[in-house]
Amino acid sequence: MSHSPSAAPHFDSAFRARLFDLFSWRRDVRRFRAEPLPLGMLERFIEIACLAPSVGLSQPWRFVIVGDSGRRQAVMDNFESCNADALLSIRYAAPKLAGLREAPCHLAVFADHATVVGRGLGQRTMPETADYSTVRAVFSIWLAARAEGVGMGWVSILDPVIIGAILDVPRDWRFIGYFCLGYPQAEDDSPELERLGWEQRQPVGGCILRR
Amino acid sequence: MSHSPSAAPHFDSAFRARLFDLFSWRRDVRRFRAEPLPLGMLERFIEIACLAPSVGLSQPWRFVIVGDSGRRQAVMDNFESCNADALLSIRYAAPKLAGLREAPCHLAVFADHATVVGRGLGQRTMPETADYSTVRAVFSIWLAARAEGVGMGWVSILDPVIIGAILDVPRDWRFIGYFCLGYPQAEDDSPELERLGWEQRQPVGGCILRR
Q1: Which CATH number do you get for residue B104?
Q2: Mean pLDDT estimate for chain B
Q3: Within the 31-90 window of chain B, which residues sit less than 8 Å (CB to CB) from chain A?
Q4: Neighboring chain B residues of A157 at a CB cutoff of 8 Å
Q5: Chain B partners of A82 at a C-beta cutoff of 8 Å?
Q6: What is the extent of the structural domain holding B78?
């Protein structure tokens, strides 16, 4: 093969300690400052997202940067409606569940189920791997953003079909999630839901089985 | 609130450049050296995985460390069978699709759909967010492993129901993926499927829409 990679990087213990800090201090942010992100920053994060592993190198991720105020409002309306239903059904003492109104940046992410890129490799028994590939791309953005002091929040209390219609995307695109990005009002190393007493982190040992 | 976080870390440009290297040099590894991982390393990676964001703090991830040679063989048999079917249907000139035989470490990951942790918050309109949360945990392992020179490969050519049966896990656990971990035979900054001519990386601009 003519391919010759550049020299592989060595990641030292100082880097790994910072990486651990990054995982620890990454939050699902709901409280944003209004200050906009620097021009081109989101596109840079999306470039990083495209380095994520995808099944059969299918790269099914599709990123929709939502800037139109009418569409943003329609998404917020859908959130309000779905959240009202959820409040009725699970009766939670609503923590703040979205930062849609304040966040300077809205990003919707889809998985293209019609792409021929990757030629279907690896998806036959588990077609959901296209969605999982897209989730890895999203999580790459989350980490890259946090490393620049930018917070991200995942909004899942939405109707996937309605969001697809609001954003006028192809029917074969499956909605993965809607994200707010912006500078957070505060930084923390524990989840807000834990601080609010909604739920606690579970002991790691409890999620490991040996077979 | 009595909660007082420790001082938030600042991630400088040197760290961010290394983080970019980490994303660039993370590979979906198929070729492993037989050398085992140091004792306790996988458990450390799982601790990092548990820092991933989960819907409603539900922490649905379940990790099954597969050490039993009979079960490993049964998983490999299932891979061979599913892969033979796939070869018939999509006629690919089989690249190496799994490192199951050589990898010192086998890890199966599931999402517990019956957990009450998180009390269902955020999952009503999109129950698949439990699976997506688990995928983020998996990708955390992938990155943490790469930072220690350890490679990871995702095996998706498997039958989820049969894998659940082989590993004797609760029925409410949904199979997310089966992973090989070990030291890679080689390091590279381009995907093996690209080097083999299977597929190419797509231009980033093509996956961005503005609405």
Answers
A1: 3.40.109.10
A2: 93
A3: 43, 46-48, 50-53, 55-59, 61-68, 71, 82, 85-86, 89-90
A4: 122, 124-126
A5: 124-125
A6: 36-184
φ/ψ of A192, rounded to 5, equals: -60, -35
Determine whether B189 is exposed, middle or buried from the number of CB atoms within 10 Å of its CB (0-12, 13-18, 19+).
Answer: middle
Q: What's the structural domain count of chain B?
A: 1
- Judge whether A176 and B207 are in contact, CB under 8 Å: no
Q: Is there a contact between B27 and B192 (Cβ–Cβ < 8 Å)?
A: yes
Alpha carbon of A34: minimum distance to chain B alpha carbons (Å): 20
User: Is A167 inside a domain boundary?
Assistant: yes
In a domain, A31, yes or no: no
Q: For residue A28, is it within any domain?
A: no
Please tell me the predicted confidence (pLDDT) of residue B7: 87
- Any B CB within 8 A of A28 CB: yes
Q: What is the ipTM of this complex?
A: 0.95
- Contact across the interface for B209 and A169, Cβ inside 8 Å: yes
User: What confidence tier does A92 reach under pLDDT thresholds 50, 70, 90?
Assistant: low
